Amino acid sequence: MKFILAESAGFCFGVRRALDLVLAESASKKGGIATYGPLVHNPQVIELLKLREVSCTEDLDQIREGMAVIRTHGAPPEVLDTLRGRGLEVLDATCPKVRAVQNVVSTHAAKGRHIVVFGEKDHPEIAGLVGAAGAHPCAVVLSAAEFDALQLPAETAITLVAQTTANRQQFNEFTKHAKERYPNLDVRQTICAATEKRQEEVLELINERKVQGLIVIGGHNSGNTRRLAGIGESHGLPTWHLETAEELAGLDFKPYGLIGVTAGASTPSWIIDRVMTRLREMEEETTNPLRARFKRFVEALTSMHITTGLAAGFLAYVGAVLMGVGFRLDFFLLVSCYVLSMHVLNRFTESGVDKFRDDPKRLVFYRRYRFGLWALGIGAGVASVIDGYFLGVIPFIFVLVASIIGVLYSVRVVPKGWMGLLGFRRLKDIAASKNFFVASAWALVSIFPLFFVDQTGSAPRVILAFVFLFLVTGIRSVWLDLSDMSSDRLVGRETVPLVLGPERTRRLVQRLIVGLVVGLYLTAVLEWLPSLAYVLATWILLEFLYLEFSKRRFSLPTLTRDMLVDLHFIAAGVVAWLWRAVG
Ligand code: F3S
Fold first, then answer.
1. Beta bridge partners of 161
2. Which terminus of the chain has fewer Cβ atoms in its 10 Å neighbourhood, N or C?
3. What's the CA-to-centroid distance between 176 and ligand 1, angstroms?
4. Ligand 1: which atom is nearest the Cα of residue 98?
5. Confidence at residue 428, expressed as pLDDT on a 0 to 100 scale
6. What is the pTM of this model?
7. pLDDT tens-digit readout, 482-536
8. Do residues 32 and 65 lie in contact, with contact meaning Cβ atoms separated by under 8 Å?
9. pLDDT for the residue 555
10. Is residue 214 within 8 Å of residue 237, measured between CB atoms?
C-alpha cells in the first residue's frame, strides 16, 4: 500500500490570512477577542484559538467588549454596523475573494438586477452575500428545481453568482439550465480557484493516478472538505473523511495499492503532517519492519531530549575550543544534564497549547511515561547542580540560578496584584522571551562555569565564544518556532515569530546567520579566535544555503526535524574535536 498526497491540500490563502490576522492581534492584545462564528470550520483550530484567548460565538449579543472578528465567510453589513455601533474594534477578516463576490452582488443589485446565489442557504457566506444585496431581490438556490420554483418572469434581468466553495460541475449544469430559460442572465464565475484546484486534484488522483481509495482530512463541519469526500464517493471509491490522525486507528489499508490523500481548505498543515506521518509509518511497518523499529528507538531518544542534551554537551566542547581552554567530561555532563533537564521539565509546566504544536508521538510518549520523564528531568537537573558543586562555587551558582529560572519560566510566580505594575505573571508572558531565555541560559552554562574552572582562557575569547553560542542556540530556537509556525502549529507570543511575524523573523534569521558567518571569518582572520572559526563559518554558510534552497526545509515531521538539528550540533562538536586532535 502507498499513499499519495494532493499538492494543494490544506489551508487556502483566505483561511491562512484570517488566522494570521487574528494571531497577530492575539499576540499584542491580552484577551477580549471574539470571532463572530467559527473563524474556520475546523474544531482543532478553534480549540487552539481558545488557548490563545480568542473566543468564538454565534450569538452577536454576546460580543460586547474588546475586538470582534468577522471570519473569512464575511457577514451582512448590518452585523458590522451593530458591532461598530457598540464601540467595538472590528477586525474584518472576510476573505478578499468572498468580498469580491459581495461587491458583484451589491453593484448588480443596485442596478436593479435580480440576484440569484447558487449555494447552501444556511452557509454563513450566503448570509453575507444576501446582506450585500440589501433590500433588492436576492434568491438562494441549490438546484434547478428550486430555481424554477422562483417563477421569475422570462424577461427578468438576473445576475447569477456562486458560493465560493460550490461544486464547479454542479454550478455549470445549473448555469446551462438557467441560460435556457433566461436570455438576460449574467453569469459570474465566483467559485474560488483554491476550491476548484482541490477538487481538480482529487479528480486527477482518481482519473490519472488511478487511486483505489481516498482519504480526506478536515473538519466534519467543513463544507469544502465534505465536497472533496463527495467526489471520491461519487466515483465509487472507498472514502475516509477524518478530522485527526487518531481516527486512523483500526483502519486497514492493506487491501489497497495506492490511496490518495487530500485535505480541505480549512485543515491546518500540522494535522495533515500528523496523518501523513502515521500513514507513512503504516506503510513502513508493512514494507520494512526493522527500519520502522529503529526509527521508533531514535524518536524515543529525541522525545526524551537525550539527543538535545548530547548536542548541548558537544556544543560546549566547541565553546571550549574557541575559548582555548581544556575540556572535562564532568563539564560535558553538567551542560548535557542541565539542557536535558530544562527541556523535559518545561514540557510539564507549559500550557495546553503545546498539544497542538508538538509531535503527537511525543505527546503520547509524555503521557505514557509521565512519571519516568519527571524522574529523568528532576534527576538530570539535580545531577547538573551536584556536578556544578564539585566543579566549584561559581559553576554551582551559575547552574543553580539558571535551573531555578528555567523551571520557573512557565510558572506564575508574580502575584496577581502586581500584574498591573509588571504586565506579566510568568516570564513566559514576556513577548519573545522564550528564544532569549533559551539562548542566554544555554550559552551562559556552556561557557562561564568552564572559564572559571579552567582559568586559562582570555576574557575577550570568552566573550566571543559566548556570543557564538548565544547566536547559534538563539537561531536554533527561533528557527524551530518559525518552522512550527510555517506548519500552522501555532506558536505563542513568547516566541519571536509571533511577535515579528513569519516574514520579518525569516529575514532576522537570515541576517543573524550572515552576521555569524562574517563574524566568524573576521575573528579568525584577526586571530581573535582559532582557525576552527573558519571551519564553523563555512559549515554554517553551507547549511544556510541548503536551507534557503531546500524545498523540504519546513516540511519534515517534528521529531525528525528536532533530531537532525541535534545531530548537527553533535557533528560540530566532533569537527571541533578532530580540529584539536589534528592541530
Ligand atoms: Fe477564500 Fe477561497 Fe479560501 S474564497 S477562504 S481563498 S476557499
1. 117
2. C
3. 25
4. 4
5. 79
6. 0.71
7. 887 766 556 666 788 878 878 899 999 999 999 999 999 999 999 999 999 999 9
8. yes
9. 61
10. yes
Reported as a single tens digit per residue, the pLDDT across 93-110 is: 999 999 999 999 999 999
Q: Does domain 12-94 have CATH number 3.40.50.11270?
A: yes
Q: What ranges make up the beta strands (E) of 224-275? A: 239-242, 258-263
**Which residue out of 25, 125, 243, 494 is catalytically annotated?**
125
- Grid cell locating 301: 531518544
Cell of 449: 562555569
**Is 125 an active-site residue?**
yes
Contact indicator for 161, 174 with CB cutoff of 8 Å: no
Q: What is the tens place of the pLDDT at every residue in 198-214?
A: 999 999 999 998 999 99
**DSSP readout, 401-440?**
HHHHHHHHTTS--S-GGGHHHHS-SSGGGSTTHHHHHHHH
For residues 559 and 67, the model is more confident at 67
Q: What is the pLDDT of residues 154-168, one digit of tens each?
A: 999 999 999 998 888
Q: What is the dihedral of CA 443, 449, 454, 460, to 10 degrees?
A: 50
97-191 and 205-297 in the same fold: yes
Q: Give yes or no for residue 265 CB within 6 A of ligand 1.
A: yes
Higher per-residue confidence, 299 vs 36: 36
| pLDDT confidence of residue 351 | 54
- Beta strand 114-118 with 138-141: parallel, antiparallel or unpaired? parallel
Q: What's 299-582's CATH class?
A: mainly alpha
Q: How many whole angstroms from 273 Cα to the centroid of ligand 1?
A: 21
**Quick one: CATH architecture of 205-297?**
3-Layer(aba) Sandwich (3.40)
Architecture per CATH, 97-191: 3-Layer(aba) Sandwich (3.40)
Q: What is the DSSP string of 131-189?
A: HHTTTS-EEEESSHHHHHTT---TT--EEEEE-TTS-HHHHHHHHHHHHHH-SSEEE--
Q: Length of the chain, please?
A: 583
Determine whether the shortest distance from the Cβ of 124 to ligand 1 is under 6 A. Answer: no
Q: Is 18 in the pocket of ligand 1 (CB under 6 A)?
A: no
CA 542 to chain centre: 26
Side chain identity at 453, as an amino acid letter?
V
CA of residue 377 to ligand 1 center, whole Å: 45
Residue 102, judged by CB atoms within 10 A of its CB (0-12, 13-18, 19+), counts as buried
Distances 434 to 273, 366, 487 between C-alpha atoms, Å? 25, 21, 19
> Is the torsion defined by CA of 203, 205, 207, 208 positive or negative?
positive
CB count in 10 Å sphere of residue 35: 24
d(CA 495, CA 336): 24
The domain segmentation of the chain, as residue ranges, is 12-94, 97-191, 205-297, 299-582
Q: What is the mean pLDDT of residues 109-131?
A: 96
**Three-state secondary structure string covering 91-125:** EECCCHHHHHHHHHHHHHHHCCCEEEEECCCCCHH
Name the grid cell of 570.
Answer: 553533535
Ligand 1 centroid to residue 227 C-alpha, Å: 14
